[in-house]
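[Automated response] Your request has been received and processed.

Submitted sequence:
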Amino acid sequence: MKKYVFSIDQGTTGSRVFVFNKNGEILASRYKEHQQIFPEEGWVEHDPVEILQNCYLLIKSILTKTKISIKEIDSIGITNQRETSIIWNKKTGIPVYNAIVWQDTRTAKMCENIISMNKNDLIKEKTGLPISPYFSATKINWILKKISITNKSDLLFGTIDTWLLWNLTGGINGGIHKTDVTNASRTMLMNLEKLEWDDELLTLFDIPREILPEISPSINSAGFGLTSLDSPFGCEIPITGILGDQQAALFGQTCFEVGDAKCTYGTGCFLLMNIGTEIKISTNGLITTPAYKINNEKTIFALEGSIAVAGSLVQWFRDNFEMISSSAEIEIMARKEIDNGGVYFVPAFSGLFAPHWNSSARGIIIGLTHKSNKNHVARAIIEATAFQANDILKTMEKESKLIFHSLKVDGGMTSNNLLMQFQADLSEMEIIRPEIQETTALGAAFAAGIATGFWEKDATLKHLNKQSKRWHPLLNPTKRAKLIKKWNLAVEKSKNWLEDD
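Generated structure:
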């Protein structure tokens, strides 16, 4: 009898592997960080081999220490940091360059050149995305120009899901080269209407079609492939669910109805709202993206707003200023003051994402006076994430013509009760946190299990998604308006910093 679903959650700062039982409970989990590589200002890279090895170690550790029988594993789901791009040699299995991470801005000038060619409307209409170094297309172009290889037919491209899938299913000995619609949509190369690679965009970015993976539904009953005998599982197990991390969190939060929304507070911060089967291209700086696709059913789409720096801002403060020894301590520090003392922190370390999309913005701390202290700065750091999320929420309300009364939240930062209360206060809505905060991994597991019949989508999953805590708005409306006004002033000050050089 099949009892468990494995979920591989490969994120920006580390990798996690989970085992979920039939009740949607975590039987076991393991985590391992990987190195963050910063070769130059604005450049962010990962070692794909290190990521793969870490995932293998985590899988082996769980199998060894839990004594789970391989025969009890129903299926495997994969979720991943999305736009991060890898190109490798299919004959050797060796990457030709480090993975270029979604945060990386090295291709900002390339994007500016494409914008100057008046291609912005074309790309937005075809892909739902603005032209930005955030997405994979310009990263792929950069790597192809960087490496010295004449026979590009030996190369394969993939986001992290494809890299893991290819290796788990055999690698150089017949690995499966596929991705799902959610990850493919983040390349700036997939046509949203057709769910296929777009020839006009491939020509624009000078990317050969043959290096790209096959695009499949996110929940795939036919399977993406079977793990190979030389994989850490040591036998054939179907990989039946693949979702980009934020879509996986949306799925894990069971946001199956139009208007359902979630916000994941992790390294970055990502807010998605289910908009149903109709493609709606944003005119207010949001992204239109596939939320998920189940087999041959109609694709469900979402509006998305992305924040580059959220939890990573707390880590930055911890590591560079050494005033706290753990990220959790920032809440204790911030609670020593009743408010931010007029201090605002705009963490535009690599530019601003939605709804501003200003890649030349840079981080600023503003509003400092003689009375300002480290506790005010700590509070401003926490509040920065809520301010950025609120910008997206209000833009989403404008775009969808819906008023949010509640928001489902997940991710590591939701353990910060001060942040959650401030988000409720600022956004004037109820904030709902689930019992299982690892909803990204849960969503990937749900996707895999639905594909095999291990779970039923609506009846079972909504029952399994239990809530643990709610926050209600308490802030005076006048105070709220003043805070938002000052935040907007700070954001404007941060923009176009690089143009002043």
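Summary generated for your ticket: The chain has a mean pLDDT of 92. The radius of gyration is 22 Å.
If you did not submit this request, please reply to this message.
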